[in-house]
Amino acid sequence: MADESYLTNNWIAGVPTVRLGDVCSFVRTLDPTSFALRVDEDEPNSCARAPGLILNTDEFPRVYTIGPLGADRANSLAPLG
């Protein structure tokens, strides 16, 4: 984000109905070295090393996706050698 005017005047690329101001303030920052952006970069790596994830969804409130990621990864990569 170049300056704070982007929060009200600009759209997110590829999603014209969502303004930058609609994004939560935790990830909306003018500082490229902010803690929030570092967390957002590190979290996918942490998830990839996790033995499992619990993903709750608002679309299907009674569905809880739970899985042992290590077992799934081993089975899906075995045919590749």
Description:
- With 81 residues, the protein is an alpha+beta fold.
- It has 2 domains: 1-49, no CATH class; 51-81, no CATH class.
- It has helices at residues 6-9, 35-49, 69-77; strands at 11-12, 15-19, 52-56, 64-68.
- The strands form 2 sheets. It has a two-stranded antiparallel ribbon.
- A hairpin with a 2-residue loop joins strand 1 (11-12) and strand 2.
- The radius of gyration is 18 Å and the shape is flat.
- The termini are far apart.
Give a summary of the structure in a few sentences:
This protein has 81 residues and is of the alpha+beta class. It contains three helices and four strands, in the order H-E-E-H-E-E-H. The longest helix is centred in the middle third of the chain and has 15 residues, at 35-49.
Write the layout of secondary structure elements.
Elements lengths: L5 H4 L1 E2 L2 E5 L15 H15 L2 E5 L7 E5 H9 L4
Antiparallel strand pairs: 1-2, 3-4
